[in-house]
Target: Peptidase
Amino acid sequence: MLGGGLILYKLIWIGAGDIKYAVILSLTIPFDDLLLAYILTAFSGGILAVTYLMSKKLIRENARYQEGIPYGIAISIGFYLVILTQSTPHI
Model:
């Protein structure tokens, strides 16, 4: 996961801190629940991106300035939903 994340970082698709955070959270859940965690992270990231872009359009700040979306929030939501809803006795 870390190797794939570093490739995504090199392509400037995701930040290095988000990769490290996702890798550490991947170690906290069983291997069988990883796919569900990634899917929930993607859905929460999509919702986060839509709300973030809508709020930027409503504020109408400098339209030419591109800023990244804080994806750590989506990573947290996706992984913690799996941690709280699945039976993980080791946590």
About this structure: The CA atoms of residues 52 and 85 lie 27 Å apart. DSSP finds four helices and no strands in the chain. The longest helix spans residues 34-59.
